[in-house]
From TrEMBL:
Top-level taxon of origin: Eukaryota
Entry keyword Nuclease: no
Cofactor: FAD
Keywords: FAD, Flavoprotein
Residues annotated as binding FAD: 138, 275
Pfam families, per database record: GMC_oxred_C, GMC_oxred_N
Database matches in InterPro entries: FAD/NAD-bd_sf (IPR036188), GMC_OxRdtase (IPR012132), GMC_OxRdtase_N (IPR000172), GMC_OxRtase_C (IPR007867)
GO molecular function, one term: flavin adenine dinucleotide binding
Domain Glucose-methanol-choline oxidoreductase N-terminal residues, every copy: 312-326
PANTHER family listed in its UniProt record: FI02019P (PTHR11552:SF215), GLUCOSE-METHANOL-CHOLINE GMC OXIDOREDUCTASE (PTHR11552)
Species in which this protein is naturally found: Atta cephalotes
Leader peptide range in chain numbering: none
Stated family: Belongs to the GMC oxidoreductase family.
Protein name, per record: Glucose-methanol-choline oxidoreductase N-terminal domain-containing protein
Length: 634
């Protein structure tokens, strides 16, 4: 999602290097955040970028993102273990802490800036027919510039994983790990058996909302859905968003899991360390170290026990293949010696949705950039941690709904709605169009005529796509971006479900509660769809294929499965088949994508993966004793 861009005032544009005349506000924002809020919210202070490193460690973790930060924190609870965390990017900064600035972090140095390959099936309104795939190149990974939405997925997802031959991954088992991380500060969830307090990861609602999100939830009730905790007993329903924020500030996994333990003697963090390959002994078929480039210098650090790959669903398969683990024919094609023939880079899945669905309103209650005055909003946020800058990237509500294709006999909705009190037009084309990569033709024809008008949007999202894509190496050069073929809509069922999702979204907009705002559908046709009658199924399919909206949830490229599954890369304990001392613990291991935003499930995978490592290397009594001792010290 990209709606955070629209809440930023002209002064804040300049705060991250955009054009404008208010350049003097750059130091004001940074100094203000530091002076008024930073020590208060983050008494642990910044992570230590360790120089020099030891020659060897017990565990080396590749990637300090949503999973890697969790694993590093949990493994370092065992004081006799030395842990090294390698991250390709730098540390967070004051700007990344501001929830509303999420979209402005895309296409910066904190982003890997990936793009998918062009096809004739999706992203047709984007420049070159290629959707952007931002991924976090920063400590904390994509949790540093995601939209902070805390969504766990559906119980059926995890029971399905277990049914595929992955014992221990059913819902009842993974719920423990969701709760282990959580410090939920929503008062109405305090007594819920599905939530917990006291964990590292803070979850709460944004302290600022528009009346549109209240209307959105009420509209769902009008349509027969319940206002419920979608992370609780049942998922189907409408809800005001919960997010990983802490007193108005982003709570990334780096902030949650690493800063609080930064002074532990047995954990080293090395930033700006680009991993080029895992060193594997071909005689013993064991991972024995990691090669990486830091500050222009190539280094190798050895692992006494394990190498843990947590670089995400794009970088993890890339690193595996660079290390000789992957499809035999592909590795031979790019000139990499084959160490283990596995289906790495297959099974790529992502949540794809419909962007640009816009509803015009006649009340000044949405987020329109030009309406916001820079200094008052900025200072209110800096001093009080409140106001529109605390919005979860602009996404105020979400819902899980059933199209005609869903199984209505069980709680397993097939479409998710993201609701935002703004649309592509709301920042007059300053940032949202750039993040999406929209062509000038599309923006000028459809959205420029309503620049800075009050609008709101619903983005229908396909929860369980049938289409599968691939990650492939572009070459044997570890600094070349991999080839990402998302393969959107290769299965016709995916587009059919999304068309129904679009029609349901319009029904929500037509609910009685929205009449108070004069809500009506923006009806200018997309240039590539002018030959079709507006509002027909054929038109909505054309719209979806043009403004195809990913919310950046790639998973599945190092699939978890039993030994009998020829497509599996890791076993149910996340160990790479045929290579000792090597695990993958991140979104790559998902056999099928979970039904909702993926950040919370990846944190859960990190928690469970860390426990699997402890179980394999320690007795249960040792685990309990060592962890309790370390937590008392912390």
């Amino acid at each position: 999602m990209v709606f955070s861009a629209i809440v930023v005032t002209s002064a804040l544009k300049s705060a991250i290097g955009l054009m404008g005349t208010s350049l003097w506000l750059i130091p004001l924002l940074i100094a203000g955040l530091s002076y008024y809020r930073y020590d208060q919210l983050d008494p642990e202070s910044r992570l230590i970028d360790k120089h020099p490193l030891y020659s060897d460690y017990d565990f080396i973790i590749i990637g300090g993102g949503s999973a890697g930060a969790v694993i590093a924190s949990r493994l370092s609870e065992i004081p006799n273990w030395n842990v090294l965390l390698l991250e390709a990017g730098p540390d967070e900064n004051e700007i990344t802490d501001v929830p509303s600035l999420a979209a402005y972090l895309q296409l910066t140095t904190l982003d890997w800036k990936y793009k998918i390959e062009a096809t004739d099936k999706a992203c047709l309104a984007m420049k070159g027919g290629r959707c952007n795939w931002p991924r976090g190149k920063v400590i904390g990974g994509s949790s540093v510039f995601n939209y902070m939405l805390y969504v766990r997925g559906n119980k059926q997802d995890y029971d399905h994983w277990e049914s595929l031959g992955n014992p221990g991954w059913g819902y009842n088992q993974v719920l423990y790990y969701f709760k282990k991380s959580e410090d939920n500060r929503n008062p109405y969830l305090q007594r819920s058996p599905y939530h917990a307090t006291g964990g590292y990861l803070t979850v709460q609602e944004s302290p600022w909302k528009t009346p549109l999100v209240v209307a959105f939830v009420q509209a769902g009730i009008e349509l027969g859905y319940e206002n419920r905790d979608i992370n609780g007993e049942k998922q189907t329903g409408f809800m005001i968003s919960q997010g990983t924020i802490r007193r108005g500030s982003r709570c990334s996994t780096a902030k949650a899991f690493l800063r609080s333990i930064r002074l532990r003697k047995n954990i080293h963090t090395a930033m700006n360390s680009h991993v080029t390959r895992i060193v594997i002994d071909p005689l013993t078929m064991r991972a024995i170290g990691v090669e990486f480039v830091r500050n222009g210098r190539r280094q190798i650090v050895r692992a006494r026990k394990e190498v843990i790959l947590s670089a995400g669903a794009i970088n993890s398969p890339q690193i595996l293949m660079l290390s000789g683990i992957g499809p035999k024919e592909h590795l031979q094609h790019v000139g990499i010696p084959v160490i283990k023939d596995l289906q790495v880079g297959e099974n790529l899945q992502d949540h794809i949705g419909m962007g640009g669905l816009t509803f015009l309103i006649d009340k000044p209650v949405s987020i329109v950039q030009d309406r916001f005055q820079a200094a008052p909003i900025l200072m209110h946020y800096v001093i009080n941690g409140r106001g529109p800058m605390t919005t979860l990237g602009g996404v105020e509500g979400y819902a899980f709904v059933n199209t005609k294709y869903a199984n209505h006999s069980i709680d397993y909705p097939d479409v998710q709605f993201h609701m935002a009190p703004a649309s592509i037009n709301s920042d007059a084309g300053v940032q949202v169009r750039k993040v999406l990569g929209l062509t000038d033709e599309v923006y000028n024809a459809v959205y420029r005529p309503i620049n800075n008008r009050d609008t709101w949007t619903i983005m229908p999202l396909l929860l369980r796509p049938k289409s599968r894509g691939t990650i492939r190496l572009r070459s044997s050069n570890p600094f070349h971006h991999p080839i990402i073929n998302a393969n959107y809509f290769s299965d016709p069922m995916d587009i059919a479900i999304l068309v129904e999702g679009a029609k349901l979204a319009i029904k929500v907009s037509e609910a009685k509660v929205f009449k108070q705002f004069g809500s009506k559908l923006h009806r200018i046709k997309l240039p590539g769809c002018k030959h079709l009658k507006f509002g027909t199924d054929a038109y909505w399919e054309c719209h979806i294929r043009h403004i195809s909206m990913t919310i950046y949830h790639p998973v599945g490229t190092a699939k978890m499965g039993p030994p009998t599954d020829p497509t599996a890369v890791v076993d149910p304990r996340l160990r790479v088949y045929g290579v000792a001392g090597l695990r993958v613990i991140d979104a790559s291991i998902m056999p099928t994508i979970c039904s909702g935003n993926t950040n919370a499930p990846v944190i859960m995978i990190g928690e469970k993966g860390a426990d699997l490592i402890k179980q394999d290397w320690l007795s249960s009594s040792t685990i309990n004793h060592e962890i309790k001792r370390e937590l008392r010290k912390s």
